[in-house]
Amino acid sequence: MGKKLLLKNDHIPYIHKLSVYREHGGYSVLEKTLKTMTPDAVVEEVKKSGLRGRGGAGFPTGLKWSFLAKPEGVARYLVCNADESEPGTFKDRYLMERHPHLLIEGMIAASFALGANTSYIYIRGEYFYVARILEQAVAEAYEAGILGQNILGTGYNLDLHVQIGAGAYICGEETALLESLEGKRGNPRIKPPFPAIEGLYGCPTVVNNVETIMAVVPILELSGDEYAKIGLGKSAGTKLISASGHINNPGVYEIEMGITVEDFIYSQEYCGGIKGGRKLKAVVAGGSSVPILPADLILKTANGEPRLMTYESLGEGGFISGTMMGSGGFIVMDEDTSIVKNLYTFARFYHHESCGQCSPCREGTGWMEKIIGKILDGHGTLQDIDLLWDIQSKIEGKTICPLGEAAAWPVAAAIRHFRSEFEEYVTKPDSIKDIKHYYRLQN
Amino acid sequence: MTTEQIVFKTEILALAHKLMKRYPEGKHKSALIPILHLAQAEFGGWLSPPTMDYVASVLNIAPIEVYETASFYSMFNLKPVGKCLIEVCRTSSCWLCGAEDIIEHIEKTLHISVGETTSDGMFTLKAVECLGSCGTAPMMQVGADYHENLTIEKVDTLLKDFKSENKQSRYC
Ligand SMILES: Cc1cc2nc3c(=O)[nH]c(=O)nc-3n(C[C@H](O)[C@H](O)[C@H](O)COP(=O)(O)O)c2cc1C
Ligand code: SF4
Ligand code: FES
User: How do residues A393-433 score in pLDDT, each as one tens digit?
Assistant: First the structure.
């Protein structure tokens, strides 16, 4: 069994209730922190832990916190990013649904470290029922003197609110999220200024993912140095992976970083192998935005080393033969899967979710969806494949936010690794009719 | 629906005012999205122009600010929808697990295509993007509720339930 930090109490019934959470040691780390540590000391522990943001980019959390501007007399904010809309990702929902108090404990500790007295959890609108669970937990915490004025008698004050979104993937991008939290359209802001200088209501703000904020609790419990020993090298700690697709045991798993991809896919403790004993064809390892890899490259790097579940190993080979940890949305496809059709679902998604501010993204995502659709329908030409490559290569680096790249990378990787399949759709349109375009329910 | 009818019940209005107090002085526009959800749930599952005007008056902001925001988000329906709003996820993981079968089956059963409402105004069917239930695919959301690990039988039971009880899906 791997090490469990965030899910160590996952088996305990009613752990979402304050009384049960406290019976199992809940809020004792917070109490100790507020009573014995300074805010700077908390930031220092998080730095030492090597924790990297779990929202997708993997930026060192302690470093990010240390960038926060601290002008006199200006409020600072911590905003939890619970927008979770990257296809293939459902770990934050699982964490919030089952462990709302762990998130609240992390929010209070992190807010204390940053000197925030008001914080928000921004949760995607479709997660209505999860927002209810959070709201109930927040109400329980207020009642018990864990939120509000003079928390646990320590003199620290924090108000925490749960804010609900309304269906827009782009609101997961941190500046779009802040716009949305201000009641506006979720259009990403031009950076700089970065949120650490001008964020919510123009005030210094840190935006962190749900899992990142929860990880602060075990870091403070164990100490930064001890946390850093878990995992492998610069991939410190545990990571929550949402596993879906053609596997025997889809679900959310907490892994200690460093296990092999092969172990993750085939062992009974995790995915339990491919459904129906079929062969593995491809994996999207970190949510829809990261490059898809064929079976041989996801199991082993181009050098023939076993691929590991770490930021470094998944990234080994760059975009030529590697991928990314991303959000940990691990989508597995068996031998019968049409890579072109899977890509089409991604292209349609990004076109739908583009906020429309930048023309390379707005137009590019639309054209990519159309051309992939045309190829899928058997009306494509070989030039269309080149055109597709050309369009994706012209988005990267030319947009306000990274959604443009997120839309381009999956297209590039699918063509790079599965070009022959695209060509088959073009040159043998009749035989495609026999290819399983999509999956039947019993599969 | 006439404009006179578009007024929050006392308790909903009180809730709206409570929401507006969660933000710093002068930043109460932050409550717009939560209040639009309340309005959509109260006034027939969609946001008519009079509903949006009313929300603007509650927040004391210009109606255009409400239209601007409401039209950005996919959960806000700017046209009427059926009493029961069915949203089936069609993105990768759900597709891999048979979402297209689910969509086809609902289309056939209700005699509508994606994007349409049944003539009796009971059901609206939409195909939507990933709802964060990829591990329990295929899935759909009906109003505010998630239905996961779908089978044809599960879908049939659900549709029958709504129809026989002439039930309205919950919106928040
Ligand atoms: C299009 C887009 C969508 C994103 N969606 C999410 C999301 O749903 N959840 C999340 O935590 N971060 C998301 N991010 C990353 C955030 O912008 C931000 O980097 C993150 O919340 C920082 O938190 P972390 O440092 O704890 O990872 C998204 C970024 C982009 C460009
Ligand atoms: S890259 Fe796309 S989503 Fe991001 S700001 Fe530009 S148009 Fe909007
Ligand atoms: S792909 Fe359907 S819920 Fe994520």
Answer: 999 999 999 999 999 999 999 999 999 999 999 998 877 76
Chain A positions in Cβ-Cβ contact with residue B93 (cut-off 8 Å): 87-88, 244-245, 331
CATH number at residue B89: 3.40.30.10
Whether B90 is covered by a domain: the verdict is yes
**ipTM > 0.95 for the complex:** yes
The number of the ligand 3 atom at minimal distance from the alpha carbon of B131 is: 3
Residue from A203, A182, A190, A29 nearest A104 by CA: A29
Single residue among B72, B106, B125 that ends a domain in this structure: B72
Range of the domain at B58: 3-72
**H/E/C letters for each residue in chain B?**
CCHHHCCCCHHHHHHHHHHHCCCCCCCHHHHHHHHHHHHHHHCCCCCCHHHHHHHHHHHCCCHHHHHHHHCCCCCCCCCCCCCEEEEEECCHHHHHCCHHHHHHHHHHHHCCCCCCECCCCCEEEEEECCCCCHHHCCCEEECCEEECCCCHHHHHHHHHHHHHCCCCCCCC
* Residue B99 included in any domain: yes
Look at chain B and report how many structural domains it folds into.
Answer: 2
Q: Check B30 against A163: CB less than 8 A apart.
A: yes
Q: Can you tell me the distance from the alpha carbon of A351 to that of A370, in angstroms, rounded to the nearest whole number?
A: 10
B90 and B159 both lie in a single domain? yes
| B93 and B144 assigned to the same domain | yes
Q: Is residue B172 part of a domain?
A: no
Q: How far apart are CA A225 and CA A216, in angstroms?
A: 13
Residues with C-beta less than 6 Å from any ligand 2 atom? A 170, 188, 354-358, 361-362, 399-401, 403-404
Closest Cα to atom 5 of ligand 1: A172
Model pTM score: 0.97
> Are B68 and B96 within one domain?
no
